[in-house]
Write a structure and sequence with these properties.
Chain lengths: ~170, ~170, ~170, ~170
DNA sequence: TATGAATGAGAATTCATTCAT
DNA sequence: CATGAATGAATTCTCATTCAT
């Protein structure tokens, strides 16, 4: 999966009203800039996942986190490229990504354990599925609110398919 | 939604072992090339949809077409950019896209009429959802077969969520 | 003096609704085309000069020919580049050019002999002066008629300066 | 009137032993480069015209300025294209051109008032006439000195025709 | 002989990166 | 440590000319 439009350090400099070379000093590569930009959003996601784990109901925890995460990825355009980046391409965010994947996995495992989630879906599927939902919501260009609303609708369908029924 | 890596007419010429200007004569713009490349795949999709409509069971028709379409989009990398292109950016494929969307809509309507598909999902959602499934399958780089297999697994989940249960 | 915009054989072909290669067959170089296009106008000029020599009054003959020649050069855009071309660049028109220059010279000599023209102006000056008048008339873009009218006004001034007064 | 050989920014860079993009930074268009190159010559012309206006004799002032201006245009090849450019094609030199035309006009008006210049020739004719003289001197390729000498000879004739005789 | 598609050299232009200030 | 002008490689695109039909 390619990373989409590579970040132009020159443009970043202009946008930030800062010299080009200043940007180069801080972020030797576009990837470094991307990781820096994406890190706060990532940390927020991780802390959301942490909190979700505290939820008493496994299914609710998984569902609510997915809603929150999807919203976040729609809102912060720097997150998608990081998720889509080849492993090890972004060393500084690798650990965050792994932590997030692990938390996602625990949320899913809980749901599995509770008999609430389809056991054919594994931990490794969660991030791709979330990215797919966000991508689907972006296919037709629209205002951010509309994209968020579509993402939620699509997520509702996905969760319906993910949930194990009695 | 951006169109992904823009096609380089120069590279296309080198790849095709043909003069640069030959490519420019035939495809004045990268879009023209993309459309030409994507058209056969599109036509195949349209004919698949046509055939699917003949299926006696509405849900089976929708499901089988989705499997076929997803496989095709995974296999033919020129299709995704066309689906993701802004309306009217690719004039020559606009009509094909509309036909496909319409056929998708009829398959969905049949399923709605048969009480088999969630009425909250509309015709306009089908292409995005299919693209989302393909995107999800591409998030982690993998061999084409693996990607196709993942896409099918994700599609199974999606269809589960889409289907109305008694 | 450069020859101005070089003739584009490709454009010539399109304009003539003829294949590119056909033009290349007939006119291997842009210069060959230019010469072919310019020849009829040149021949007309030469015959005008011939007729002018028959005029009884030396000054009238020179003057009237200059008016006719200036009009012709304004009207036929192919003539200026030929006049401005380096000697020997256009072999096929060289002889015509020389004949015209010689006739110009005889008209001037007659006027000199009649004491009507400034003896400091020589045969070699006539073509450049005529070209200068045409150029001056073309400096400010205008409709062909206006350019012709300006050329005549400028020529009147030039003739006034050229004429020897008693 | 076309602007003659268009300046090639690429060549300019090579000639100046400077990076291509450096030229593009400073002169986004060939016109910008032309204007920059031509401006000093233009300013010199304007100041010559200013000084000429101080001359006590109207005819002498006009004549001497024409000599100076013609010499300058022969010597500085960047001036002709600017004079020949369509109005507004070269925004940065438009004002200089207008100032020069106006000064030319005042010199001519003074000569008209003194009964020294043909009233049929107007302010708008001066620049074209000067350009025509320079063009005539350039028709036959020659060393710069010869071209300057020819231009002066032609200018003498023109001035003779322009001057009103008692 | 006429055709026009193919050619590829070269011109125009952009952009990530470096470096002198 | 910040700056932005300079760089030149890479890319896009044009055009005169050739060549297979």
């Amino acid at each position: 999966m390619d990373e989409g439009t590579p970040i132009q350090l020159n443009d970043a400099a202009r946008t930030a009203s800062v010299g080009v070379a200043t940007v180069y000093r801080h972020f030797p590569t576009p990837e470094a800039l991307l990781e820096t930009v994406a890190t706060p959003g990532f940390e927020t996601l991780v802390s959301h996942a942490d909190q979700a784990l505290a939820d008493g109901d496994a299914w609710t925890a998984l569902r609510d986190f997915l809603f929150a995460a999807t919203d976040a990825v729609i809102a912060d355009v720097s997150l998608s490229p990081v998720f889509a980046a080849p492993v090890n391409a972004l060393p500084h965010t690798t650990e965050l990504k792994q932590r997030l994947t692990a938390l996602f996995g625990r949320l899913l495992d809980q749901a599995h354990a509770a008999g609430a989630a389809d056991p054919r879906v594994t931990q490794a599927d969660m991030v791709p599925l979330m990215c797919g939902v966000v991508y689907a919501a972006n296919v037709h260009p629209a205002a951010t609110e509309d994209r968020a609303a579509n993402a939620r609708r699509y997520l509702v369908v996905l969760l319906e398919g993910l949930r194990t029924r009695a």
